[in-house]
From TrEMBL:
Name recorded for this polypeptide: DUF58 domain-containing protein
Pfam hit, one: DUF58
InterPro entries for the chain: DUF58
Occurrences of domain DUF58 (ranges): 50-251
Length: 291
């Protein structure tokens, strides 16, 4: 039998690493939370959506006689569709995500976790079920799930230099969110989105980049090294690489956009030197309109 002291100790152990991420995400989510989360289409639910003219086949019990009495036509009162959906989130925790170009710029991984956690808060607030792919955390609803999500997002094991999207556990016709710098091998990304599309899963892909990765402000003698140290390149003329680097980055972005367009996903690039609110607002709207 679990004693109150043991239960309290276990609860404190669970909650101890959560406040910074959870508090920051709650604060960020509040800046975007503009009202009740809705699907804006007719279906099962409790909230009124719209009146529409009655059509052949509509049952008499569905006619709103009070509204119909104010005109010469019959009207049906429709409710907003509110069935909960499942959303799986994948956040890249590879070593490349720990890069930052300065003390005043957050690490890519920190910003990715913040955006993912804030999105989860908004989704769960709207009654959705949210889980993490690859963590053995299936979609669930309710505030307790937020604690589970924050705890799982804070875990870090032996990871590679670049992350691989995880598509396991995606339910047919559910939604998903992938957050990464997407600077590694593109084949796993294509495979994951293709697998998701085959299951009818649609979602949003957010590419998180540091300002230096976007601008390539290097010149002269420079040593480029991956965060895990597996790759290293030294050059005396870094400036000569700028045009080729920017062209390849633009090509990668275009490849991601095309992949999202083909699979029915939506793409956004976010820089860690910018405030997170616009990115979360885009993400909120993107997931809101996924059907």
């Amino acid at each position: 039998m679990t004693t109150s002291a043991t239960l309290r100790a276990r609860a404190e152990d669970l909650a101890s690493p959560l406040p910074p991420l959870l508090a920051d995400a709650q604060h960020l989510a509040q800046s975007v939370l503009l009202g009740a989360h809705g699907r804006r289409r007719a279906g099962q639910g409790d909230e009124f959506w719209q009146y529409r003219p009655a059509m052949v086949g509509d049952e008499a019990r569905n006619v709103d006689w009070r509204r119909s009495g104010r005109s010469d036509a019959h009207f049906v009162r429709e409710k907003e569709w509110q069935a909960a959906q499942s959303v799986l989130i994948w956040v890249d925790n590879a070593r490349s995500m720990s890069f930052t170009s300065g003390r005043n710029v957050p690490q890519k991984g920190d910003r990715a976790r913040l955006l993912a956690m804030a999105a989860a808060i908004l989704l769960i607030h709207g009654g959705e079920r949210v889980g993490l792919s690859g963590f053995g955390l299936p979609p669930r609803a309710g505030p307790v799930q937020l604690l589970r999500l924050a705890s799982a997002l804070g875990e870090a094991e032996d990871v590679p230099d670049y992350g691989t999207p995880e598509a396991r556990g995606m339910l047919p016709r559910s939604r998903a969110l992938f957050v990464s710098d997407f600077l590694g091998d593109m084949e796993p990304v294509e495979a994951a989105l293709t697998k998701a599309a085959d299951r009818g899963v649609k979602g949003a892909l957010v590419q998180v980049l540091d300002p230096e990765e976007e601008a390539f402000p290097f010149d002269g003698r420079t040593i480029f090294e991956s965060m895990g140290g597996s790759m290293r390149h030294e050059t005396l003329k870094a400036g000569d690489l700028r045009d080729r680097y920017l062209a390849r980055l633009a090509e990668r972005k275009d490849r991601l956009r095309t992949l999202c367009r083909v699979t029915g996903w939506q793409y956004e690039c976010h820089h860690t030197g910018e405030p997170p609110t616009p990115a979360l607002l885009w993400l909120y709207r993107a997931l809101e309109h996924v059907q």
